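Troubleshooting entry. The earlier prediction with EPS gave an output that would not parse, so I re-checked the input for stray whitespace and re-submitted. Clean input:
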Amino acid sequence: LRYLTAGESHGPELTAIVEGLPANLALEEHEINRDLARRQQGYGRGGRMQIETDQARILSGVRWGRTLGSPVTLSIRNRDWENWGRKMSPAADDFVEGIAITHPRPGHADLSGVIKYRQQDARNILERSSARETAARVAVGALCKKLLAELGVSVLGYVTEIGGVVADSVPEDYRERFALSEESPCRTFDGQAEQRMIEAIDRAREQGDSLGGVVEVAVLGAPVGLGSYVQWDRRLDGRLAWAMMSIQAFKGVEIGLGFEAARRPGSQVHDEIYYQADAFIRNTNRAGGLEGGMSNGAPIVVRGAMKPIPTLYRPLQTVDFRSKEAFAAVVERSDVCAVPAAAVVAEAVVAIEMAQALLEKFGGDAVEEVQQNLQAYRDYVKGV
Ligand code: EPS
């Protein structure tokens, strides 16, 4: 399974091509749109989300509600494009004088991008580095979640922290965490923390500031033995970490105990193994479902840290990259906090990696074949 996305934030559309999905997977546009709508929600979003109502169109690879095994092309229109016209036109004749952005935002791709790509306008950088691109990845993730559902695997994303406010009333059950979070404007499970998160976001908005946070993704139902220790790039923990870190504005990733594992002695880190009722069991899951680069059958738990969005309404100090004079950074319309949306994006990128790992081990050209291969393996594992 592989995919590419394309599209500028204020261009006509975002496009994704997904190759390697098996045939006969039931797929409808509304199933993708459900996740696109979830990504658009969340307390702390800015004006752009009032303009967009993200909808995916399936342009290839699906006929009469089932995948064909051929590449699936998805398109998501940017409604805001209509407001940009000549300013985002591909035609040289449409050039508009005097709109170049030359005051790069600290923390954004602006400055490194203009140097790297030899540009004189930071818009040529920010259009593609924008987190608008995550809409395309959420659409791809929705396809992968459809496949995972056929294989008995679910991927659940939610928020555990915003702006230093921690959701510390944590239900044991991941499904309960998820169900509560689905009802929450901060996409979190702790109602009291949610109230304080909302207050923190309101305060940041008043102060022209922005807030980051932490999201968690739990994968339930993954069989033991996905990924491998035999080569570095086959380690599932490494691939999940790469996928999470590749989300715009993410600066940290943890699996299971994560950095806390470095602080504890081994006796309080590893999950002891017991054999009960014909099965290997653990009473803890500090490893986050991954040992030796492989899934161990327990829930896979990955967390990602998102930094505050670099576009501040009370801008930080910067330098005009043409004149070299000191200026305040450019103020683009933006969100105060996009952590609730990032939980949906994290869910998508984890789903993509999980689908890839399952297809590597149980791959087939049609969904039925993948299901049979997986069932045979599950039967084997039961007998061990
Ligand atoms: C973003 C800036 C804002 C966000 C955008 C990410 O866009 P605009 O400049 O059009 O207001 O709204 O996020 C999305 C458009 C989205 O769909 O999530 C940025 O600079 O990264």
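This one parsed fine. The longest strand covers residues 154-162.
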